[in-house]
C-alpha cells in the first residue's frame, strides 16, 4: 500500500489570505480551506456531462455565452477568472514588451517614473 504524503506547494498570497478569511467563516484552517477548494474544483472539472461539454465549448469560443444557462455561465466566468489570475502571476509584461523593442514606463519603489528600455537600461524621468 502506498502511503499518501503531504507535499510542499506554493500558493499566491492573495489565495492564502482568502482561504484564511473563508476558513474562519467555515471553521477550517487556511490549509483545510485550500484543500476544500481544490477538491471542489477537481470535482467540478472532472464532471463529464452535457453541461461540462457546453462550458468547454464556450471556453473554446465555439458556443456563445448567451446560450449558456446561468449555472454554466458562473462556471465559465470562474474558469476565465482563474486563468487570468494564473497568467498574471506568471507573465512578465515588461520582458515581453522589451523583446518586441518597446520602451515601458513604471513607478519605482520611490514613486518616480522610470523608463525601461528594450536593451535593459533604465532612466528616471524628470518631474518637470
Give a description of the structure:
The chain is mostly helical and 128 residues long. It has 2 domains: 13-90, no CATH class; 93-124, no CATH class. The chain is 54% helix and 9% strand. The protein contains 5 helices and 3 strands, in the order H-H-H-H-H-E-E-E. A 3-stranded antiparallel sheet has the order 1-2-3, covered by helices on one side. Strand 2 (113-116) and strand 3 (122-124) form a beta hairpin. Helix 1 crosses helix 2 (30-46) and helix 3 (50-59) crosses helix 4 (70-90). The radius of gyration is 21 Å and the shape is extended. The N and C termini lie far apart (71 Å).
Per-chain topology:
Layout: H1 13-26, H2 30-46, H3 50-59, H4 70-90, H5 93-99, E1 104-107, E2 113-116, E3 122-124
Antiparallel strand pairs: 1-2, 2-3
Helix pairs in contact: 1-2, 3-4
At a glance:
With 128 residues, this protein is mainly alpha-helical. It has helices at 13-26, 30-46, 50-59, 70-90, 93-99; strands at 104-107, 113-116, 122-124.
What are the salient characteristics of this protein?
3-stranded antiparallel β-sheet; 3 strands; 9% strand
Helix fraction by DSSP (H/I, runs of at least 4): 40-55%
Q: What are the segments in which pLDDT stays under 50 over at least 5 consecutive residues?
A: none
**Helix-strand sequence:** HHHHHEEE
How many beta strands in the DSSP annotation? 3
Distance, first to last CA: 71 Å
Question: What's the number of domains?
Answer: 2
What is the subunit organization of this protein?
single chain
Calculate the mean pLDDT score and round it. 86
Strand proportion, as a percent range, falls in: 5-15%
Number of helical segments?
5
Radius of gyration: 21 Å
Amino acid at each position: 500500500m502506498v502511503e499518501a504524503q503531504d507535499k510542499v506547494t506554493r500558493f499566491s498570497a492573495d489565495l492564502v489570505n482568502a482561504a484564511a478569511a473563508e476558513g474562519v467563516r467555515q471553521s477550517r484552517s487556511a490549509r483545510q480551506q485550500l484543500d476544500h477548494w481544490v477538491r471542489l474544483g477537481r470535482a467540478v472539472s472532472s464532471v463529464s456531462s452535457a453541461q461540462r461539454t457546453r462550458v468547454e465549448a464556450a471556453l473554446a469560443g465555439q458556443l456563445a455565452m448567451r446560450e449558456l444557462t446561468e449555472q454554466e455561465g458562473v462556471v465559465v466566468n470562474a474558469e476565465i477568472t482563474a486563468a487570468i489570475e494564473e497568467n498574471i502571476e506568471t507573465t512578465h509584461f515588461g520582458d515581453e514588451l522589451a523583446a518586441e523593442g518597446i520602451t515601458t514606463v513604471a513607478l519605482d519603489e520611490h514613486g518616480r517614473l522610470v523608463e525601461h528600455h528594450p536593451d535593459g537600461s533604465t532612466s528616471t524621468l524628470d518631474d518637470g
